Amino acid sequence: MMSMINVDVFSSPGCGKCGHAKNVLRKLVEELGKEKINWRDVNILEDIDYAVELGVLSTPSIAINGELVFKSLPSAKRLREELINQLKGSNGC
User: Tens digits of per-residue pLDDT, 48-58?
Assistant: First the structure.
């Protein structure tokens, strides 16, 4: 059985870059497979303890499987490459 990866997008209300990050991630999830990637929007104001625990200092930041991978918005290409690498790793390949 294929493992899922969990992706958290840390955002703050009114953040334009955060909206862009969520749109890019949404498209990548559709491309790579909704059954493979579980993602959620984490409002940094509502979940500050989790954000601090991971070391989030700015939004948008992206964590994969509970590890802060991007401290700022990566390019769509870079995010896609990282998701593919994570998916390969989670399959035991």
Answer: 999 999 999 99
